[in-house]
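Handoff note, outgoing to incoming analyst
You'll be picking up this chain. Sequence as last confirmed:
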Amino acid sequence: MDTTTLISTILITLALVFYTLGVWAERIAHYLKPWHVAAFWIGFVFDTTGTIAMDLIEPGVDWLSAHTITGQLALWLMLGHAIWATITVRRGTEEARTGFHRYSLLVWLFWLVPYIGGMLLGMDVI
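Most recent structure output, in case you need it:
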């Protein structure tokens, strides 16, 4: 495995760790806390940098591939999720903070599609 592949794999895996930690900790607590929001943002940053690193392995994006489409949608959903979480923690009602976990799980589940797909592509399974 070359260095760029290793780095991008580590970055994407760190995205999985932080995003999963934030989503599941928030879901278990049933209350959105500032550190959950920080975990969402850290996961997003790792995912973005990992995606950029992966583009260095094979430059040029196939915009019509299922992996690219789901990956881009997942990044946009993560960004929207992190922004919304930030606003909710800063100005949201208690009701908004206690109900936020419903949306988080959906974004996380969608994010797993390109993560697992990319893993399978990397192993030449699909």
